[in-house]
Amino acid sequence: MNLAQIRYFLTLAETLNFTDAARLCGVAQPTLTRAIQKPEHELGGTLVYRDGKDTRLTSLGSDVREEFAAIVGAEDRIRASVNSRISGRRERLNLGIAHSVAPAPISRFITHALGEMPMLEILLHPIDGKMGPGLLLAGTLDGVFLADKPADDTKLSVIELFSERLMLACASSHRLAKFDMVPPEEIGVESYLDRLGCDFRSQAIDYFMNAELVMRPRLQSEREDWMQQAVADGAGICLLPEFSAIVPGLALRPVSGLNLERRVSFVSVSGSGNAPALRHLRMMVGSHRWPHSAGASKQ
Prior knowledge:
- Belongs to the LysR transcriptional regulatory family.
- By secondary structure, the protein is an alpha/beta fold.
- It contains 10 helices and 11 strands.
- It has 3 domains: 1-88, Arc Repressor Mutant, subunit A, CATH 1.10.10; 89-163 and 262-287, Periplasmic binding protein-like II (D-Maltodextrin-Binding Protein, domain 2, 3-Layer(aba) Sandwich), CATH 3.40.190.10; 165-261, D-Maltodextrin-Binding Protein, domain 2 (3-Layer(aba) Sandwich), CATH 3.40.190.
- The strands form 3 sheets. Strands 3, 4, 5, 6, 9, 10 and 11 form a 7-stranded mixed beta sheet that branches. Strands 1-2 form a two-stranded antiparallel ribbon.
């Protein structure tokens, strides 16, 4: 097998559609099919299960996908290193981050990526998450970090990074910080601060109504830093995604009956025709150790 066949397989593994994969690879579908059959023959096992329109990876295919991705990533790193040394050329990626995605998890990853890719430059753009897929398909952005997985689209590659629950946030010294699980009735007697830019805002309002809680916000703003600082200073409580605290002095606690969560994803245009820097970054996104929900652990 050769690198072209490996790249064809990785594209098919992303799209799970022979027609779309062939189009993205710029080859005829029979050519792609033969390219997939070649490693299957050499490895002695089926990589892709085909049943009419149903295409999915076998267990062996999933294992091989990780190894093939490592091979392609190694080649990309070699080429990038050689090109950088020969031409001194830096590569720039334009990445979008939805306004509602907190900086800490993303910043840690970007710091790691910059350390691993010394010739990479990243330009970060704050975006409305709903605009992300369109900006990708238009070529304006190379990748976006979104608060929720976009609608299924074979043109897009989606890597889910982490899930985070909506939780109650209060000052570390607040009485509610002593709870492992906050009862809804305890919230209703507190001053409520309304984060107008919250992705969960409409669902949170529904929760309050169903719990027969009348929440009259004492403070409202789209400025996340101001609202969180006001909570940390003891002005009241708010609801906040699990990994979204950006000021010190906050305690986050789960609320009984409040079962809302979002899944933060990295999205880019699918296929192997992307710039080496983006392919390398995407591989790093997939292997990075992202945060995991730790239940009701106290801070």
